[in-house]
């Protein structure tokens, strides 16, 4: 098999007869791929694998239950041999005589067609031929597919979303590595990125130079661009036929106003996708060694913002309370919790800049947390965790060691 004699093609096998000779592992794998592609598959073999038997039982595959015989290729467009026996040579000879392309299992040198290693990433198909070496092709295929999945290779084009598209992407709690694979892939496709203050800004350096980046970040008590203007911005750019990624910190549906942006896009007739993010409510606590639930310690948790009246939450250390935002109001919030029934000695923690290299954890009790936060100079972004699970953290163990 020489490179000069090959012509890479993609075959449209849907609705066309393809014959597979053999019933083992290779035949099974090829048959399932052909069925998925819509081919009308006939398997010729005295015996078949359990997986093939299931497909045959469902009526997805026709089975000729015997060894191969001349005439079995009548009406076929393609044949796959996979018996690992001299039968493969007979099939290949018949295919050659009938001008039918032949995939010859284990013998690429004497085949007239070769199946590449294939991966599908969105609407992009990756097909790699390894020069007859299936293992090499698979390794190369996996590498290219992984790079596309991770957004390391460009996927921007003008045909995927010609009428505009918005993706509401949760960027996770801070570490760029915690952005989902789907989120990174959409960033690689973006024409416009509308970014929050708490989104992983380090990822912006990976964007092409012509990608428009719009920072609409909100600071505590300071919203320079109101939400309705952000909604209008998303709609405007999408109506220009652009792929718009709204990159938000944490998860867009956990106190992230993602629902409002989704409604605005849908009302404007804009296709929109929501990509969940790793919410800081759980992940930042976990990064500090605090599980929000733990067998024998806590069976549930509540997530609130520090701006709300939280007197109605369960008043027990066995139910974890996670507060997002609200650092400036921490003293008032702690006082309200104690007044409504929370024990003043309930373990508590504030975690600043979670999941980043400068993360800091301060632990205390509910009655002393506000003072400890002031002494430490705690600032947003931060979350507060109140409940017995705080005692599981390394910071609490260190506090106990020091006699705190």
How does this structure look, described?
The active site is at residues 196, 218. This is Uroporphyrinogen-III C-methyltransferase. Pathway: Porphyrin-containing compound metabolism; siroheme biosynthesis; sirohydrochlorin from precorrin-2: step 1/1. Keywords: Cobalamin biosynthesis, Lyase, Methyltransferase, Multifunctional enzyme, NAD, Oxidoreductase, Porphyrin biosynthesis, S-adenosyl-L-methionine, Transferase. It catalyses: precorrin-2 + NAD(+) = sirohydrochlorin + NADH + 2 H(+). This protein is α/β, with parallel strands linked by helices and 404 residues long. It has four domains: 12-114, Rossmann fold (3-Layer(aba) Sandwich), CATH 3.40.50.720; 116-149; 165-278, Tetrapyrrole methylase, N-terminal domain (Cobalt-precorrin-4 Transmethylase, domain 1, 3-Layer(aba) Sandwich), CATH 3.40.1010; 281-401, 2-Layer Sandwich (Methyltransferase, Cobalt-precorrin-4 Transmethylase, Domain 2). Helices cover 28% and strands 21% of the residues. The protein contains eleven helices and 17 strands. The strands form four sheets. Strands 3-2-1-4-5 form a five-stranded parallel β-sheet, sandwiched between helices. The chain has a five-stranded parallel β-sheet with strand order 10-9-11-8-12, sandwiched between helices. Helix 2 links the parallel strand 2 (40-44) and strand 3. Helix 6 crosses helix 7 (258-267). It is elongated.
Q: Which class of secondary structure composition applies to the elements?
A: alpha/beta
| Helix content, binned percent | 25-40%
Mean model confidence by pLDDT? 88
Q: Kindly report the CATH topology of the largest domain.
A: Methyltransferase, Cobalt-precorrin-4 Transmethylase, Domain 2
Uncertain regions: pLDDT < 50 for 5+ in a row? none
- The CATH homologous superfamily of the largest domain is called Tetrapyrrole methylase, C-terminal domain
Strand order of the largest sheet: 3-2-1-4-5
Pathway: Porphyrin-containing compound metabolism; siroheme biosynthesis; sirohydrochlorin from precorrin-2: step 1/1
GO molecular function: NAD binding; precorrin-2 dehydrogenase activity; sirohydrochlorin ferrochelatase activity; uroporphyrin-III C-methyltransferase activity
Organism: Aeromicrobium endophyticum
EC number: 2.1.1.107
């Amino acid at each position: 098999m020489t490179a000069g004699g090959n012509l890479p093609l993609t075959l449209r096998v849907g609705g066309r007869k393809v014959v597979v000779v053999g019933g083992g592992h290779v035949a099974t794998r090829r048959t399932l791929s052909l069925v998925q592609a819509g081919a009308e598959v006939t398997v010729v073999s005295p015996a078949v694998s359990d997986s093939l038997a299931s497909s045959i039982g469902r009526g997805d595959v026709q089975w000729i239950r015997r060894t191969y015989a001349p005439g079995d290729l009548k009406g076929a467009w393609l044949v796959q041999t996979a018996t690992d026996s001299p039968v493969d040579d007979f099939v290949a000879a018949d295919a050659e005589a009938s001008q039918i392309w032949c995939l010859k299992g284990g013998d690429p040198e004497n085949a007239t067609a070769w199946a590449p290693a294939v991966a599908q990433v969105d609407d992009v198909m990756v097909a790699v031929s390894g020069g007859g070496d299936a293992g090499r092709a698979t390794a190369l295929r996996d590498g290219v597919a992984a790079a596309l999945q991770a957004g390391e290779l460009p996927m921007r084009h003008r045909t995927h979303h010609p009428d505009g598209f918005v993706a509401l992407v949760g960027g996770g709690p801070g570490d760029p590595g915690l952005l989902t694979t789907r989120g990174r892939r959409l960033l690689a496709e973006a024409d416009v990125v509308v970014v929050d203050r708490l989104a992983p800004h380090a990822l912006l350096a990976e964007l092409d130079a012509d990608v428009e980046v719009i920072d609409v970040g909100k600071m505590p008590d300071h919203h320079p661009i109101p939400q309705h203007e952000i909604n209008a911005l998303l709609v405007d750019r999408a109506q220009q036929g652009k792929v718009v990624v709204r990159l938000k910190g944490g998860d867009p549906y956990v106190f992230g106003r993602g629902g409002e942006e989704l409604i605005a896009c849908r009302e404007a007739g804009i296709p929109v996708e929501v990509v969940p993010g790793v919410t800081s409510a759980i992940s930042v606590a976990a990064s500090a060694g605090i599980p929000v639930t733990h067998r024998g310690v806590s069976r549930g948790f509540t997530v609130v913002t520090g701006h709300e009246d939280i007197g109605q939450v369960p008043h027990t250390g066995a139910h974890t309370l996670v507060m997002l935002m609200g650092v400036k109001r921490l003293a008032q919030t702690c006082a309200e919790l104690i007044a409504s029934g929370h024990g003043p000695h309930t373990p508590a923690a504030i975690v600043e800049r979670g999941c980043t290299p400068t993360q800091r954890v301060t632990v205390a009790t509910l009655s002393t947390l506000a003072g400890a936060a002031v002494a430490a100079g705690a600032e947003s972004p931060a979350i507060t965790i109140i409940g017995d699970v705080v005692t599981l953290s390394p910071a609490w163990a260190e506090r106990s060691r020091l006699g705190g």
